[in-house]
Amino acid sequence: MQEISKSFVPAVPVLEGVSLEVAEGEVLALLGENGAGKSTLMNVLAGLVTPDAGGLELAGERVDLGRYGPRGARDHGVGMVHQHSALVPAFTVAENLCFGDSAAGPWFRPGAELRAAEALSRRFELEVPVRRRVEELSPGQRQRAEILRALGRGARLLILDEPTAVLTPGEANALFAALRRLRGAGRAVIFISHKLAEVEQVADRVTILRRGRVVANLSAGELDARELGRLMLGRDLPPLERRAAPPGPPRLALRGLSVPGVTERSRLCGLDLEVLGGEIVGVVGIDGNGQRELEEALAGVRRPSGGEVLVAGRRVALSPRALRRAGLAHLSGDRERAGLVRGMSLAENFILKGSWDDRRFFRRGQIDRRAAALAASRAAARFGISPSDPDGDIASLSGGNAQKLAVARELDGDPPVLVAVNPTRGLDVGSARFVHEQLLARRAAGGAVLLISVELDEVLALADRVVALVRGELRSVPPGADRAAIGAILLGEGGA
């Protein structure tokens, strides 16, 4: 790619003269903050965005970017796995793998396609339930299905946009092994990630973008994760401060909470847990062990089969409105599916969880758009959200800025309880630091935070106590347990 430039708004460039190259048998890591231009650059390569200027060569062939589109990208051997799922929710994984694939032929052959999907899953060592519908899958399972589809279509150049955002360490290691096999077979891979330790592990070279420009082209072995982060941000991040906070009374309590699961493994079985004021309790677990069920029960969208939930000592009906009125805020682990709504403005998303009787934003059942816009503007100023136009579409925000808006909404009104699920998924180091600081600030203010995350390092950095969710049951994690000990508990080999 030579001197690629693109502006979506006049005089506001997203990319300014960006050049990039990747060779056969090479893994190139593309780094940058949210909004640095990484996804736009890759969308140009995938034929989804037409640049304002620049050139493109694939396998030595000059491409006419004016006529280049998704079909042209595929014909040239370019495959892209997007950060957010592009699968058909009502189809099974096997159906999605062959859907739109010209090599599959004009007829769908269920038995043959299912066997092919299972063989593909085994070949790349990515466990995916290929018989189940995508809408029933967790975010991690959907992401792995996306990766399988791209790999199965034989792309010579594979673009992976945050492929490990919701993968456990073991699943990520399996993906890296697959990437090494692809590299050995002469394929080229562009790997976008905010997990700098992963970049050191898998990449041969690194290209870093900042504010739409290339600021560094380096061999991966030249720099450590801290230096890569400094180049991405243009500054050093100070150490994360965790101030001591005196524990308060229980703010959130689960009493014998049982919830039907998507699978038998994910069914919640009589959970008992307390979260005190001024405390962060971390819940760790391998994806698919009940995290989704726990999140949805505490959001009021999955009916429990037994038990109760108490907020500030009072039993609460498990409905979205009742939970929110009781003071339980919910930061979704899936912004695209359950957190924010594309097509709505920043202001509309900010008041999205409000009730018709909230007099701050509603008058006689109608939205007070002036009040909503003012509140969204104040949140944008406080949390550094850009662009800050309250009437702008939420889709105009980068992942980091979109998450800031979601955090601002959930913390509005200082709720006594915050349930945060994978709160930094897909965020760069700067945006992730911001979210971590907000969780610690809520703790310091006496709030109770239940942190449900597949990121073990995140939980260990923030949580005062850690519990493991294993096959729908909570198991204690001893204070000071290291990663190996916690890993054994997650595999069902320890804990109580």
In short:
Helices cover 33% and strands 24% of the residues.
Tell me about this structure.
The chain is built from 17 helices and 22 strands. With 496 residues, the chain is an alpha/beta fold. The strands form five sheets. The protein has a six-stranded mixed β-sheet, sandwiched between helices. Helix 13 packs across helix 14 (399-411). The protein is globular, with a radius of gyration of 23 Å.
Largest sheet: 6 strands, mixed
Average pLDDT: 87
Query: CATH architecture of the largest domain, please?
Result: 3-Layer(aba) Sandwich
Task: State the CATH topology of the largest domain.
Answer: Rossmann fold
Strand order of the largest sheet: 6-7-8-3-9-10
Principal-axis shape equals: globular
Taken together, the total number of domains comes to 2
| End-to-end C-alpha gap | 54 Å
Radius of gyration, taken over Cα atoms and rounded to an integer in Å? 23 Å
Under CATH, the homologous superfamily of the largest domain reads: P-loop containing nucleotide triphosphate hydrolases
Structural class: alpha/beta
Low-confidence stretches: none
CATH class of the largest domain: Alpha Beta
Q: Which percent range describes the beta-strand content?
A: 15-25%
How are the SSEs ordered, and which strands pair?
Elements: E1 2-9, E2 12-18, E3 27-31, H1 38-45, E4 53-58, E5 61-63, H2 70-75, E6 78-81, H3 93-98, H4 110-123, H5 139-152, E7 157-161, H6 169-184, E8 188-192, H7 196-202, E9 205-210, E10 213-219, H8 225-233, E11 250-259, E12 268-276, E13 279-284, H9 291-299, E14 306-311, E15 314-315, H10 320-326, E16 328-331, H11 335-339, H12 346-350, E17 362-363, E18 366-367, H13 369-383, H14 399-411, E19 417-421, H15 429-444, E20 448-452, H16 456-462, E21 465-470, E22 473-476, H17 483-490
Helix pairs in contact: 7-8, 13-14, 14-15
